[in-house]
């Protein structure tokens, strides 16, 4: 009996030792391969108004994250735009957000709360500045907006930031030369259709759903902004994030008469803070890059997300978790 028990005890002990050795080897292999436990928990992504590209991009990213990071519960929070997004981020109401590079730079220059804690995960796609007027409008350039009712974006939006700069480049005073209507893309198309606006500015990926829907039900035209490039860049360092661009003829075919429209573009960044967990940031960055094609089928702007350009996140440096992801992708 004693011998049998001893043999049983030895076998149990040997099995335990073997299991511990296997576990140790498994952990060693995982660490040697650079692996980390899959991130888990709840995070919030601040996006934008429901009819904007930020919101739709967030909805589709949430779906892909549910597959790639099943233990992460991504919540979406609406906002008024880039500046509002950054404020939500540093206040701790969101862990990730999307913001234009010029808005991030402006946030830093103003010395707003938490500006030094901002970090980037990726450069995403470009926003295109769009000036929309009724089809029969006499407006042919930004200078023609004098004394008109103009939708300029909400007060905490990146749209209003660049609108102010474009008006300055056109020689117009934001507060004196136009009647600024401070609403977002969720309201501007309806107001234009109701003849309560004469024009509105919008900055977004192409095509933006709200503009696309407006074009289908109300005759509008896109006004070129390409003539403002030189004067815009003469405003100094703060405008170096803008580049000359052309909206392709098929962005809003009914509003462009088969012609490309010269405009200004600015990059969008996926932003977090230095307090965010590295494993979580690495996982979300990976999904953002890997989901380009799946999201791009519904949000065409997302087709521009590219591993080769994603690391160019000026004016922000990369978060450590994002840096680890890009290093892991080197051949």
Q: What structural keywords apply?
A:
single chain; 331 residues; alpha/beta; ten-stranded mixed sheet
Q: How is this structure best described in words?
A:
α2 links the parallel β1 and β2 (72-77). α2 crosses α10 (278-290) and α10 crosses α12 (320-328). This protein starts with a helix and ends with a helix. By secondary structure, the chain is α/β, with parallel strands linked by helices. Strands 1, 2, 3, 4, 5, 6, 7, 8, 9 and 10 form a ten-stranded mixed beta sheet that branches. Residues 1-5 and 16-34 have low confidence and may be disordered. Helix content is 39%, strand content 21%. The chain is globular.
Q: What is the number of helical segments per DSSP (H or I, 4+ residues)?
A: 12
Task: Give the overall silhouette.
Answer: globular
- The string of secondary-structure elements, in order, is HEHEHEHEEHEHEHEHEHEHHH
Describe the main β-sheet briefly. Answer: 10 strands, mixed
Structural class: alpha/beta
Radius of gyration: 25 Å
- What fraction strand? 15-25%
Helix content: 25-40%
Helix and strand topology:
Blueprint: H1 2-32, E1 41-46, H2 53-68, E2 72-77, H3 82-90, E3 96-100, H4 101-109, E4 118-134, E5 149-151, H5 158-169, E6 179-181, H6 188-193, E7 199-204, H7 209-217, E8 220-223, H8 229-233, E9 242-247, H9 253-256, E10 261-273, H10 278-290, H11 292-296, H12 320-328
Parallel strand pairs: 1-2, 1-3, 5-6, 5-7
Antiparallel strand pairs: 3-10, 4-7, 4-8, 4-10, 9-10
Helix pairs in contact: 2-10, 10-12
